[in-house]
Design brief:
Two copies of one chain form a homodimer. Chain A is an alpha/beta fold. The first copy, chain A, has a domain at about 5-130: Nucleotidyltransferase, domain 5 (2-Layer Sandwich), CATH 3.30.420.300. Helix content of chain A is about 35%, strand content about 25%. In chain A, strands 3-2-1-4-7-6 form a six-stranded mixed β-sheet, covered by helices on one side. The first copy, chain A, has a five-stranded mixed β-sheet with strand order 12-11-10-13-14, sandwiched between helices. In chain A, α3 crosses α10 and α6 runs antiparallel to α7 (about 230-250). The model of chain A has no long low-confidence stretch (mean pLDDT about 95). The interface between A and B is large, with 46 and 46 residues.
C-alpha cells in the first residue's frame, strides 16, 4: 500500500511561529512528518485552511474524510477559530470538548483541542496542555511540577493526572525582542556561549531580581566601554532573564519533584540553571510529548459529533 | 533684517528616534525651531548630512559658515561619526572635546559634543549629559540626583557641578517593545490610564521585583479570562516596569534630593511614582535643558580648531 492509502489521520501542532504535522496510520505509527514556518502569528483567519492544505494535501484522497486534530495557538482568539478553554484544576484535554472547524473541503474534518485557563491569578495555555497530556500518557502517576520553557515558559503543578495550577513567563519572547529589536542587538551575539557569564548573571538575578533592570543596558555599555564579547553578553542575557524567572518561581522548584519538557536546546539551559540551584532535572523533548498528547485526544474523540 | 540674515548658529538634538533643531541669533534668542522623525536609528552614516541640510537648509546662506552644534545619538558608533566620551566623575561637556564632522558643504561647520561614560559598572550616555549641563546652568550648586526618564532612563548623582556616577534602565524601550511587538499588543491600549491599577502594580513591583516576570503575561491572560480593560493594562504595565526601575534605584532616591528632567508627560508619571514613595519631586522639561546645554557648549567652544 502507498503511504496515502495507509493514512488514517493527521496530528497538527500549530503554534505562534511554526506549524508541524504528523501523518499517522491506524496504529498511530508515523508515516510522514512536515513542518513550516507559517505560524499562527503571520496568518489571517481566512488563510489557515489554504496553508494547512498546502502542507497536508499530498496525504489526502478524494472520497475519504481524513480527521485532522490540532493543538496550539491555532485555537486562539487571533487564530483560525477560537477553541474552548478547560479550567484548572482539571485534566489536560482528551478528545472531549474539541472545537470543529468549518471547512469547504470534503477531504478533511478538522478539530482543535481546547486550551486551559486559570481564573484566579489569570493565566492561559494553548499547546502545552497537549504536552502535559502526552507526558502523563507515559507517566500517569507523576506528581510534581512540569516546566515547559519556550517563547512563553509554563510552570505547571501536576497531581492525580490533573493540572492543578500554572504560571506563564514571557522569558523567551522577551529574550527574542531584546536580541532582535532593542539596542542590545548591537552587543549580543545570536550564537555562542560562556558558562561563567551565564552562571554569574543567573545567580545575581535570583538573589537580586531588581538588578536585572539595571544589568540589561549594562550589556550594551560593557561592549562600548569595556571589551566584553558578544557571546558572553548572550549568555549573560540568558542568565539574567532565566534568573528572574527562577526568582519568581521559587515555590515551584524549591523542594519539588521537577521535570522539564522543552525543545532540547532550551531545556538543557534550564536544566543547567536548575542544577546550579542543586536540582537534578530530567529533560523530555517536547515534540514527541505533543504527538502523544494528540494521539490520546484522537483515541477518545467522538468523530460523529 | 530677515531671519536668515540674523542666524548666528544652530543647536541640534539628534536622538535615536527624533531630530530637533533650534536656530539662534547672536544673543542666543530663538529665531526658529524645526523637528523631524528622522532619528539616528533609521539612518546610515552617509545619510546624516543630507537629512540635516533638508531641515536647516532654509536658514543657511552662501558666503557664510554657520556653526552647527549637535548632541545625542548622532555621535554614537552607529551614528554620523563617533564622538568622544568624557569619563565620570567629570563635568558634563562644555565646548571642549567636541568632534568635528567632515562636510563638503561650505555653509556649515558641524560639531558633536561628547557623551559620558562610566568604566566601573559600565554605562554610557549621549544626550542626557547636555540636559545636565543645561540644568546646571540654571542651578550651578545643585547637589543630588537627576532622574532623566525616557527610552533609556538615566539616574545621575550630581555634586560640585560634576556627574559623579550614573545608571541606565531600558524601561522606556522595554515598554515600547512589549506594547508594540509582543503578545501584549492585543491586551494593552496605547492611550488611556487607570490610577489605581498603576499604583497597585508599582507597589507590587517595588516590594517583589521578581513578580514582574510573572505579572507581564498576566496582563494578556487577564484580558482573555477576565474582563480587565486595555487602559488598566496600560497603567499596570507602566507600574510594573517603573516599579522594577525604582526597586533597582532605591539608593538613588531614598533620602536623596531628587529632580526629574524629562518630556513632561513621562516626567509626571515618574513624579507620581516617586510621590507614592513619599518624595515630592519637581519636573523640568528636557527640551529647554538640552537647548541651554548646547548654548553653554557653543559659548565655550573654540571654533578655529
Amino acid at each position: 500500500m502507498s503511504i496515502v492509502e495507509r493514512v488514517e489521520w493527521i496530528a497538527v501542532d500549530w503554534g505562534t511561529s511554526n506549524l508541524r504535522i504528523w501523518v499517522m496510520d491506524g496504529a498511530h505509527a508515523l508515516l510522514a512528518e512536515r513542518s513550516s514556518d507559517q505560524g499562527m502569528a503571520g496568518l489571517e483567519p481566512t488563510q489557515f485552511e489554504a496553508v494547512l492544505l498546502g502542507v497536508i494535501g499530498e496525504f489526502l484522497a478524494l472520497g475519504r474524510v481524513t480527521p485532522v486534530i490540532c493543538c496550539g495557538m491555532v485555537g486562539a482568539k487571533q487564530g483560525w477559530i477560537e477553541a474552548d478553554y478547560i479550567a484548572v484544576p482539571g485534566k489536560p484535554p482528551s478528545g472531549a470538548c474539541v472545537t470543529r472547524v468549518p471547512s469547504d473541503d470534503p477531504r478533511i474534518d478538522v478539530r482543535i483541542v481546547p486550551g486551559m485557563k486559570q481564573v484566579t491569578q489569570p493565566d492561559v495555555m494553548r499547546g502545552e496542555e497537549t504536552q502535559v497530556a502526552g507526558f502523563l500518557h507515559g507517566q500517569p502517576k507523576f506528581d510534581g511540577v512540569l516546566v515547559m520553557p519556550g517563547t512563553h515558559s509554563k510552570w505547571a503543578h501536576i497531581s492525580a493526572a490533573e493540572i492543578v495550577s500554572f504560571q506563564t513567563f514571557m522569558t523567551g519572547e522577551m529574550y527574542a525582542l531584546l536580541v532582535k529589536k532593542s539596542v542590545l542587538k548591537h552587543s549580543v551575539a545570536v550564537t555562542g556561549w560562556d558558562d561563567a557569564a551565564f552562571e554569574a548573571s543567573l545567580s545575581e538575578a535570583i538573589s537580586r531580581p531588581e538588578s536585572v533592570a539595571a544589568k540589561l543596558f549594562g550589556l550594551r555599555a560593557a561592549s562600548l566601554v569595556g571589551d566584553h564579547s558578544e557571546e558572553a553578553a548572550r549568555a549573560r542575557l540568558s542568565g539574567l532573564l532565566i534568573g528572574l524567572e527562577l526568582a519568581a518561581t521559587r515555590s515551584y522548584w524549591l523542594g519539588q519533584n521537577l521535570t522539564i519538557v522543552a525543545a532540547p536546546e532550551v531545556g538543557e539551559v534550564y536544566a543547567k540553571a536548575l542544577s546550579l540551584q542543586g536540582l537534578q532535572v530530567q529533560v523530555y523533548d517536547a515534540q514527541p510529548m505533543t504527538r502523544l498528547g494528540l494521539i490520546a485526544a484522537y483515541n477518545t474523540m467522538k468523530w460523529a459529533t
